[in-house]
Specification:
38% strand, 8-stranded mixed sheet
Length: 141
């Protein structure tokens, strides 16, 4: 039986349900994610988009030529990340899940951009840039 995950934004106006296992659960240390959330690093849980059902008033904006970031139109909670180069995939902030304790990170992305005072001593695989294949000449947003 496929696992089910659910969650919502801070105010509860936007909810989601996902069925299946995540593609990956990754720490991201890039500057864009830091600025988008105000956090020193974030954890994304990536899923196949077909496994996702939304409820509520989800808003979105292009944060770069290839990237769309979604958020709650009511409270502003950052929710999701979609990259045109990763068709059919969606990445949701792990802290929004009701089952966040089941989404254990398995890697670190953009370690060359991490803040110097963050020490990575967890033994997880590290990537200098993205953990997902994209054309080399393009940068994620």
């Amino acid at each position: 039986m496929a696992k089910e995950y659910s969650g919502c934004c801070f105010c509860g106006a936007v909810g989601f349900t996902l069925t299946g296992e995540p593609l990956q659960v990754s720490w991201c240390h890039c500057r864009d994610c830091r600025r988008q959330t105000g956090a020193p690093a974030v954890v994304w849980a990536g899923f196949e988009k077909v496994a996702l059902t939304w409820s509520g008033n989800l808003a979105s904006r292009r944060s770069s030529e290839k990237v769309t970031r979604s958020f709650c139109a009511e409270c502003g909670t950052p929710i999701a990340y979609e990259d045109d180069r990763l068709a059919g995939e969606i990445y949701i902030h792990a802290g929004l899940f009701d089952q966040a304790d089941r989404l254990v990170p398995d890697r670190h992305a953009y370690t060359t951009s991490k803040l110097f005072w963050i020490h990575l001593e967890d033994g997880l695989e590290r990537f200098d840039a993205t953990t997902r294949g994209r054309p080399e000449d393009e940068q994620p947003g």
